[in-house]
Amino acid sequence: GSEHFQNNTEVDAKVRDLVMTDVIHHFPPEFINRIDQIVLFNKIDKTMMERIVEIQLERVKELLGKRTITLDFTSTLKALLIKEGYDQMYGARPLKRVITDLILDELALQLLEEKVVDGDHVVVTEKNGKVIFEKKTVN
Fold this sequence. Notes:
Order of helices and strands: HHHEHHEE
Strand order of the largest sheet: 1-2-3
């Protein structure tokens, strides 16, 4: 929800003026007049990106639904997701694709091939830039 993304600081007035000057020079007045509101966002910092990664990884766990498979994500994996999922221009937008490519696709394959089954505990980690699934059976 939006409560996770509230800004504690306002965008600096000088920055707002610079952006608006750029907008006015770049777009024709008839286009600008059709815009109801322009919202400026501060750049995502490392703490915010860590929180976004945590939220997205909780969603991965929720996708398992009623299955009794537990997932643990290591700090090295989270660091990889922060690195690969952040873009200077697009912020955290690439993160969902990165999680799909690096985690969900492989997890789905392992579920289909029954390499991961109910009762399993899977530690998802990173080694040499690759995502590794370490399966541990829970007794």
